[in-house]
Amino acid sequence: MSQAQMSDETEHAADRTEIVTAAVEWLRTELNDPDITGAENFLDVGGHSLTFSKLNIFLGGTFGAELDKKLTYERSLSEAVAGMTPVDRPETIEK
């Protein structure tokens, strides 16, 4: 692996860590549970479809990516973040 590839991998891992931290903090506030961690499953901590939608709105607006529902419901929060996909954003229309 080249130095550039290793740098990209390190940067991507740092981005994922930042997103996991933000998602966990958001869920802690939304679900009023300060003990939630990235190793936990979204449904096991009390998440549901409305919480999922609101979390995706937050992550899309903040990081430009969204969670996959199947991954989020079946895996840990950290694994769900690793499987995020970019959000299609509409072009800005000037008035």
Automatic annotation (TrEMBL):
<dbReference type="InterPro" id="IPR036736">
    <property type="entry name" value="ACP-like_sf"/>
</dbReference>
<protein>
    <recommendedName>
        <fullName>Phosphopantetheine binding protein</fullName>
    </recommendedName>
</protein>
